[in-house]
Specification:
By secondary structure, the chain is mainly α. The chain is 70% helix and 0% strand. The chain contains 20 helices and no strands. α9 (150-159) packs antiparallel against α10 and α17 runs antiparallel to α20. It is globular, with a radius of gyration of 21 Å. 35% of the residues are buried.
């Protein structure tokens, strides 16, 4: 008698149906703007976390409440939750979706690698690595912190399975050894362009052009942020050109050359009104007014737009990656909002600007 149990391989349709149901159930546990406004009005960090304890991130943070004593600790805990959630979805997805999620989260690996390189070459001080990405999933993040030389870094990136990025760092080591800001920007551009190139190549292989369109719009948005930072911070156009990402959806490099000549924010926002990003125009002006032209607030504004864009884009195939990337971006936005709110409470910042941000700008 056969001693083994024979399992029937589930159909791809049933596997996707299970994943869709899983995502829908977990979406109900994402903190809403109303939840976060309530948390923001709390007297202290304990009450704030208690007010979102019915959400998955709130439940996670409630178990770490004694650790949440600084902005750094808040960020570490919030992104630890994000990392765990994205890893869980990757492990419970069909292979092609799991592979996509792993490709997507390598942006955190690239960020951490660049942060490490910047700290050792430009002496920028202590690193605050994001505990997300494949390096974090493999429990190797602490090893990165203790690396002291470039050859060991390259071996480490190979060990983490990020062979393409290890080879790029090796090939471009002269940019690192130059220990100059402009050379670092060149390296950043090389790694980030490769990241988006790999992401879009995978989507093209799958024939998932709707999801690819959304990713390419994210590239446009990344570049728009750079133009805004150039205007606000007075960064030289040549530096911005070096770190722009190729392969965007609607904005050509000729148009970017024109945008980089702008010297006022309203010039850019007026230009946006004639593009698919017209909804961003007023949100940019409102956010910068609330936060007194602090460009760091732009990232969360654009994450909110990315989620809005994903939600309104209809996908015709039930096997599309779009529901998954929509959930992933929703969790990323949640992490940014929760981090912003809890850091405001920990630092004793004025609460009103953050409430306006949640109610007037965020999706």
């Amino acid at each position: 008698m056969n001693q083994y149990i024979t399992f029937i391989e589930p159909s791809i349709e049933s596997t996707y149906s299970f994943l869709s149901a899983l995502l829908r159930s977990r979406e109900t546990l994402i903190a809403t703007n109303d939840d976060l406004v309530k948390a923001l009005k709390s007297n202290n960090i304990v009450d704030a976390v208690s007010n979102i304890s019915h959400t998955s991130i709130g439940d996670f943070l409630s178990k770490k409440i004694r650790e949440l004593i600084s902005s750094k600790a808040v960020d570490a805990a919030v992104y630890d939750h994000l990392s765990n959630e994205l890893k869980y979805i990757a492990l419970n997805s069909p292979r092609k979706i799991s592979n996509f999620i792993q490709l997507y989260v390598t942006k955190y690996d690239v960020y951490n690698i660049l942060l490490y390189i910047r700290s050792i070459t430009l002496k920028t001080g202590a690193m605050e690595l994001i505990p997300c990405g494949l390096i974090a999933w493999k429990g190797m993040l602490n090893k990165l912190i203790n690396i002291t030389d470039l050859d060991t870094l390259i071996d480490f990136i190979h060990e983490a399975g990020l062979h393409i990025y290890a080879d790029l760092v090796r090939i471009n080591r002269s940019l690192i050894e130059a220990k100059a800001e402009d050379k670092f920007y060149e390296l950043e551009s090389i790694l980030m362009n490769k990241y988006y190139e790999l992401l879009n190549a995978y989507l093209a292989m799958l024939g998932d052009y709707l999801t690819s369109t959304c990713i390419r719009m994210m590239i446009d948005i990344h570049n728009i942020i750079l133009v805004l930072k150039k205007i606000i911070l007075g960064i030289l156009p040549d530096i911005i050109k070096k770190i722009m990402i190729k392969g965007g959806m609607y904005i050509t490099h000729t148009e970017y050359d024109e945008l980089l000549r702008y010297e006022r924010i309203d010039q850019l926002t007026n230009w946006l009104k004639a593009t698919p990003y017209k909804l961003l125009s007023d949100k940019i002006l409102i956010a910068l007014k609330i936060f007194k032209n602090n460009p760091s607030i732009l990232d969360i504004v654009f994450k909110s737009f990315n989620l809005y864009n994903l939600r309104i884009t209809l996908h015709s195939s039930p096997l599309s990656l779009q529901p998954v990337i929509t959930y992933v971006v929703a969790k990323e936005l949640e992490a940014s909002k929760v981090s912003l709110i809890l850091r405001a409470i920990v630092n004793g910042s004025e609460r009103e600007p953050f409430e306006k941000l949640l109610l007037e700008i965020m999706v």
